[in-house]
Write a structure and sequence with these properties.
By secondary structure, this protein is an alpha/beta fold. The chain contains 14 helices and 22 strands. The strands form 4 sheets. A 7-stranded mixed β-sheet has the order 6-5-4-3-2-1-22, with no helix packed on it. Helix 4 (86-116) packs antiparallel against helix 5. The relative contact order is 0.16. The structure holds zinc ion (ZN). Zinc ion (ZN) is lined by residues 61, 63, 66, 164, 185, 482.
């Protein structure tokens, strides 16, 4: 039972794990590195394994940092099936097409700038294009169902609910080598929409994500009150309320919460503008696959209601209409991508409103320190947006409790039913994982950090203190937490 990781090893993005189980080679996830230029460059590193020799590919969920390099795998010659749940297949289409569009747009912008400087030859081509995505989508097999065992390349695979985003699964993989659990991303059990993860069975080894393995999230009820109070204060200030929103899960949680607060009379019914075509598409998938969401949402959907539609919701389809919002008078909530404010329609809203003391910026997701959002959160008084220097005079509220990731208590609860497996840590920053190893030790579990591009024997003895020897730590400041789904 061996594993070689090509991403999310000593870092949080780029999830990609090559498993050798019972003599067969199965790839779990094939995600994009995200966060800054150094991370972007890693997406261009070649796969140093025989892509055509893979016996199968399985996806845990549709976030870009778990699916975003699939088109490169297909370009490299992979033509076999890519197994996933039906909601993951639907969301992956939205995510990958958007990713190709961003790649192509970025390339055109870089080329335009480079031409003026006479260095056109330096511009790298887009990582992949829409045609590559279509060839990838043709290989998706939405044949994984929660709790049902399927045989993939001779390995028995049982996906179970991970509670992270729509369709997210963790995998129990059974082969002649033993029982392995691949956690994928695990949900926050205080999440607004997702059911809790299913308690896992016993296993010989567990590969577990550790994004927030060193902290505890605020309880959902407290988060709701915090959000309500921020909204009330913002309405009193009589300005715009900007909520930078990732398109998958966070947008739907915020829409659902706004509807709940407005219907209960907790927050005035001011206009809500959903200014993100990708979030609008993703919300349609939540509607489509609503049966797997928490009972109040599922029941509302079955009764023909729309739990994601506050009565004052306006969907903004085109950029021209998005621009016209700048002239809209009076208080209104504007939800726009991207979530870390590094691009997308949120930027022109910030340019028009961030300098006004009447504006409120409500931050509901992780902000990498190097991102525009990160600079605002850490108190910058001026920021550069679309070539202009803008004063930060808006009220800024940060609400951390909307996270879609398991915290330390959730991770320990997950491991609590797995017996005494060898625990391998991925999808986290090294210092967070280092802090988690002694916590595991207290539970009688051996925890080890997974090195990058170095094969490990998952049933082997691991490393003293859990750290692989001689491994240069891949700590890149400003690494993105994996909510970066767009
Ligand atoms: Zn994720």
């Amino acid at each position: 039972m061996h594993m070689k990781s090509f991403g999310a090893a000593l870092t949080v993005t780029g999830s990609m794990h090559l498993l050798t189980l019972g003599g067969r080679q199965v790839l779990v996830d094939c995600g994009l590195f995200q966060g800054n230029d150094d991370m972007d460059a890693r997406n261009r590193e070649s796969f140093d394994f025989d892509v055509r020799g893979l016996d199968g590919v399985i996806l845990t969920h549709a976030h870009l940092d778990h699916v975003g390099r699939l088109p490169l795998l297909v370009r490299g010659g992979y033509q076999g099936p890519i197994h996933c749940t039906a909601p993951t297949a639907a969301l992956a289409e939205t995510v990958l097409l958007d990713s190709a569009r961003l790649q192509e747009d970025g390339y055109r912008t870089d080329l335009r700038h480079a031409r003026r400087q006479g260095r056109e030859a330096d511009v790298l081509p887009p990582l992949y294009e829409e045609a590559d995505v279509h060839r990838t989508l043709a290989l998706l097999r939405p044949d994984l169902d929660f709790g049902q065992t399927t045989t993939v390349a001779g390995v028995e695979v049982t996906p179970q609910r991970a509670g992270h985003i729509l369709g997210s699964a963790y995998l129990l993989l059974k082969s002649s080598d033993g029982r392995l659990i691949m956690s994928g991303d695990l949900g926050n059990r205080e999440s607004g929409l997702q059911m809790d993860f299913t308690p896992p069975p016993e296993a010989d080894a567990v590969v577990i994500e550790t994004t927030y393995a060193n902290r505890t999230h605020r309880a959902w009820d407290e988060t709701l009150l915090e959000f309500r109070d921020a909204l009330r204060a913002a309405v009193r200030a009589n300005g715009k309320i900007l909520i930078p929103t990732f398109a998958i899960e966070r947008a739907q949680v915020i829409l659902y919460t706004l509807k709940h607060l407005m219907d209960a009379g907790e927050v005035p019914r001011i206009p809500v503008f959903l200014d993100s075509p990708m979030a609008t598409r993703a919300t349609n998938e939540y509607f489509e696959f609503g049966d797997e969401l928490i009972p109040p949402v599922r029941d509302a959907l079955r009764a023909g209601e729309d739990p994601f539609r506050p009565s004052t919701l306006h969907v903004v389809p085109t950029s021209a209409e998005s621009q016209r919002l700048n002239r809209y008078d009076g208080p209104a909530i504007i939800m726009a991508g991207n979530g870390m404010m590094t691009g997308g329609r949120i930027q022109h809203h910030l340019k028009h409103h961030l300098w006004k003391p009447s504006t409120t910026l409500i931050i509901v997701s992780y902000q990498s320190p190097s991102s525009l959002g990160g600079r605002i959160v850490t108190g910058a008084d001026h920021v550069r947006i679309m070539g202009e220097d803008i004063a930060v005079q808006a009220h800024v509220h940060t609400i951390g409790g909307f996270s879609a990731h398991a915290d330390q208590d959730d991770l320990l609860a997950f491991l609590g039913t797995t017996g005494k497996p060898h625990v391998w840590l991925v999808h986290g920053e090294p210092e967070v994982m280092d802090a988690f190893v002694p916590v595991l030790d207290q539970q009688g579990l051996k925890g080890d950090l997974v090195p990058n591009r170095q094969e490990v024997d998952l049933l082997g003895s691991g490393y003293p203190q859990g750290r692989p020897p001689g491994v240069v730590l891949d700590v890149t400041p400003g690494t993105v937490r994996p909510e970066a789904g767009e």
